[in-house]
Design a protein that fits this description.
This protein has a five-stranded parallel beta sheet with strand order 2-3-4-1-5, sandwiched between helices. Helices cover 39% and strands 15% of the residues. The protein contains nine helices and five strands, in the order αβαβααβαββαααα. It is of the alpha/beta class and 209 residues long. Helix 5 links the parallel strand 3 and strand 4.
Amino acid sequence: EDMITLPDHIIKKIDNNSLKHIYLYCESGSGKTYSMIKTVVELISDKYSYKNTPVFPIFLLARDISSIKDFFAAIAQVPTERVESEVYSLFKSGDAHLVLFIDGINECSGKKLALLKSEIMDLAIRSNTKLTLVVSGNDEREITSDEWELLSLKQLDEDLVTAVINEKGLDVKRSKNLIELLKRPFFLKTFRETDLMSMEDTKADTYSL
């Protein structure tokens, strides 16, 4: 799914009362975080202000939270053991539609990853029509169940990448591996903002991939 259409895709799911959540996967640097933040910004913009059901997005970095329950406990100022009865119950009866973005579960490991995945799957099963989960990671096998829709970000167009390489004065014919790397939005942005002339090595030596 192209990152530009992700907000519209989510709104369409809400309008159609779809119970499926979204798992967004692709390689590191492909634009998952950018795509999710851009989606949050659009969901709170005037573009969707006409909707009968208010949309309330929350964006969380997986690596920055100890657990989802602890986050909601802090927000609602209730003990963690009361989150399910006092907070999660609102996902079935609240006026607003909550879209909970959890970015980068691939950056967690061990017990924390196991806990987050358990909480995510529990929320997916508990939620009714008032909560949509949007989770991102690297591995399409990380989350697989009937409650989830799997989406993968498209890579950037090769013509765009080639044009940027030409702007830097590099030989495109000698940069095939570089082209594949720069199809990922994060790396293309970094490459574009790098002043190659200020680097110690020559252009050819630095980017002879």
